[in-house]
Design a protein that fits this description.
The complex is a heterodimer of chains A (323) and B (224). Chain A is an alpha/beta fold and 323 residues long. Chain A has helices at 30-36, 46-55, 58-62, 73-76, 84-106, 109-117, 132-135, 140-151, 169-174, 176-179, 211-229, 243-248, 261-272, 281-284, 303-318, and strands at 125-130, 158-163, 187-191, 199-200, 232-236, 257-258, 278-279. Helices cover 44% and strands 9% of the residues of chain A. Chain A has a 5-stranded parallel β-sheet with strand order 2-1-3-5-7, sandwiched between helices. In chain A, helix 8 packs across helix 15. Chain A starts with 29 loop residues before the first helix and ends in a 5-residue tail after the last helix. By secondary structure, chain B is an alpha/beta fold. Chain B has one domain: Rossmann fold, CATH 3.40.50. Chain B is 46% helix and 12% strand. Chain B is built from 11 helices and 6 strands. In chain B, strands 2-1-3-5 form a 4-stranded parallel β-sheet. Classes of the chains: A alpha/beta (323), B alpha/beta (224). At the A-B interface, helix 2, helix 3, helix 9, helix 10 and helix 11 of A face helix 1, helix 2, helix 8, helix 9 and helix 10 of B.
């Protein structure tokens, strides 16, 4: 099944808040940002443009406007300073890579067999809920979509990518009804918390959401899901980062963004405490992280990292222990 | 596809200004009315008409306030230096196209047009103190002389059921507010003024919430 515009979500009004757009992935490098100040479109390298399109999906936010607009690529492309052809070409490139990653995984007999055994019923909806690591056009969720479509094309399982770059657990709560409940999911696969421990500022400053608050938010999301959807649930912990790379990233460093692995471990502990099945990604991608598993920004999993996450998720799901 | 009813377009435009968050995207500096109007289900002419109508209502409101001579003298004495930047920070109560900040803009334009004071509306509908923390450095980058903040209403929004936790717990709100103040003190010269959230009419919020076409279950205590 193709990712159609219909799969784009109506996102809560509150998504207009906070770091929705700057969020996990700022777009323009510092030079470009300076250049951009009121002086026409920012000239980005192809690489930077692709990075922006990979993680920034304003259509998800705009679809949530009360006027519920029908959104086309031609309406979105100008926000990236390109025409619709270039925009579509770049998006298609990510779709191809997610597909190829799935095909590579399927070369493994055990994994192929696990995909066949995934507990997704024909005709149902699977929601992937999270931040940029899910929103990523070549994320674990997009790879999962491709795995299932390759092996079970007739099952017509609908995959809804409800990742939104920059989101904290608190922001996810405020869009949960529209993005999850109203999708009528049979499965909710959640990976969140990385932005809760995001720090802004040169001095060590408060993480965006304190650990106690993250814990309360996660329990609320879990209970909300249980009461409102009856969906099967599975969670994944945040992955570790390479702190030095974040500090050198032309995207993250100028925004004075900072992550610490000790904070991420703490959130991973909180996620493991949820009364649902959990995939501990801290065991799958270990600190210190193999640089191949992350993008140069030191924060987001690379295609190989995403593929590793997808394989770990499939393995756990195929064990057949839902909820 | 026909246009949504005018009232719906107006309400949507009043509280939603996607250009503020889209500005960070590579093409963000180029976003004009032509690009935005379709997202509100309308053409650029109607879109501009509605924007002008908000500005006119706000100007009228400022003029009414200025009919009181004593109030007008207070505006004259406001401690804003010529050429300085004043940032109004908050949620939909600030983001509102006819908010207190927009009225302040017209008060200054009426009384002190030559002072060239720049007012920036950095209200974003739906924002909590936590969301503000996530964009505060960008606010400081605007080099404001004053930051006037009205935030916290969405922190106490309950999703679905008032027995659950609010969007942001009170202790967390307190920590966030202190962090915002510390960041401003460390990283800028700005003077800070805070306003508390105004009260809501709970019964009206409850009645207004469910039938909304884009219902999301967040029981808002602020206007949409």
């Amino acid at each position: 099944m193709e990712l159609t515009r219909r799969d784009f979500l109506r996102v809560g009004g509150s998504v207009f808040g906070g770091a929705a757009v700057l969020g996990l992935a700022g777009c323009a490098s510092p030079e470009a940002r300076q250049q951009g100040e009121g002086k026409g479109p920012v000239e980005l390298s192809r690489e930077d443009l692709e990075y922006a399109i990979q993680f920034q999906h304003p259509e998800k936010m705009l679809a949530g406007l009360p006027t519920q607009p029908e959104i086309t690529d031609a309406m979105i492309a100008p926000f990236f300073g390109v025409d619709a052809n270039v925009y579509e070409e770049i998006r298609a490139g990510f779709a191809v890579r997610a597909h190829e990653a799935a095909l590579e995984l399927l070369e493994n007999f055990d994994l192929r067999e696990r995909v066949d055994r995934l507990p997704f019923e024909a005709g149902t909806t699977v929601v992937g809920l999270g931040d940029s690591i899910t929103d990523d056009l070549q994320s674990w969720f997009e790879i999962l979509r491709n795995l299932v479509e390759e092996r079970r094309p007739r099952d017509d399982i609908r995959f809804v990518n409800a990742g939104f770059s920059g989101d904290t657990t608190s922001q996810i709560i405020s869009r949960f009804l529209g993005d999850v409940v109203q999708q009528g999911p049979a499965w909710i696969i959640s990976m969140m918390g990385t932005n809760d421990v995001r720090r802004h500022g040169e001095d060590p400053t408060k993480i965006l959401v304190s650990h106690d608050e993250t814990e309360a938010n996660l329990n609320m999301i879990r209970n909300f899901a249980e009461e409102q959807t009856g969906a099967n649930r599975i969670w994944m912990t945040p992955t570790p980062v390479i702190e030095d790379r974040i500090a050198d990233s032309p995207f993250l460093a100028p925004q004075q963004l900072m992550w610490r692995n000790e904070d991420l471990e703490e959130v991973a502990d909180i996620v493991r405490g949820i009364d649902d099945p959990v995939v501990n990604l801290q065991d799958v991608i270990r600190d210190p992280v193999d640089p191949e598993l992350l993008l140069p920004d030191g924060l987001h999993p690379s295609l190989e990292g995403q593929r590793t996450i997808a394989a770990a998720l499939v393995e756990r799901l195929a064990e057949g222990r839902g909820r | 596809m026909g246009q949504p009813p005018r009232a719906e377009i107006e309400e949507s435009m009043q509280y939603h200004h996607p250009e503020k968050t889209l500005a960070e995207l590579p093409g963000g500096q180029e976003i004009g009315d032509e690009l935005l109007a379709p997202f509100f289900g309308t053409d650029v002419r109607t879109y501009r008409e509605i924007k002008v109508a908000f500005a006119e209502r706000t100007r009228r409101c400022a003029r009414e306030l200025l009919q009181d001579a004593r109030f007008a003298r207070l505006v004259d004495r406001l401690p804003f230096e010529p050429g300085s930047t004043i940032i109004g920070l908050g949620d939909s109560i600030t983001d509102d196209s006819q908010s207190w900040l927009e009225i302040l803009r017209h008060l200054l334009a009426e009384r002190r047009p030559e002072d060239g004071i720049r007012l920036v509306n950095a209200g974003i509908s739906g924002d909590t103190t936590s969301g503000l923390l996530g964009r505060f450095l960008d606010v400081l980058e605007g080099d404001p002389a004053w930051i006037v903040t009205l935030i916290g209403t969405n922190d106490v929004a309950f999703v679905r059921d008032p027995r659950t936790k609010p969007l942001v717990s009170p202790e967390e709100t307190g920590k966030n507010l202190r962090t915002l103040r510390d960041l401003a003190e460390t990283l800028s010269e700005a003077r800070l003024v805070w306003m508390t959230p105004p009260p809501a009419i709970e019964g009206r919020v409850a009645r207004d919430s469910p039938p909304h076409p884009n219902q999301r279950g967040v029981t808002r205590t602020s206007p949409r």
